[in-house]
Each structure stands twice: as C-alpha cells, then as structure tokens.
Specification:
about 55 residues, mainly alpha, about 0% strand, single chain
Length: about 55
Amino acid sequence: MKENFALTLAWIVGLTLFGGWMSIVGNPHVVETVIGLIIGIGSGFWVYSKLSPE
C-alpha cells in the first residue's frame, strides 16, 4: 500500500514540475525540454526514494 502511494505521489510531483517548467519556458526547444525532463524525473525519483519502504 505504501509503495503504491509513493509511486503515485512521485508521478504527480514529476509531472507537475515538468508541466510547471514548460509553462514558465513558454515555447520550448530541445534544451529546455531536456532540462524539464531532468527536473521532472529527478524530483520523481527523489520523492519515491524518500517515501518508498526499504
């Protein structure tokens, strides 16, 4: 149960930060999109690692 919660929250945080970055950038090109993906994936992994049961 806790692993499902951690995974769901990690997806929500990652997608929200990626969407927020894309709305800040406006008309993104490749570099801005890659930066957004790194932010989104990195934050998702960070949230998952903090909340997942060991």
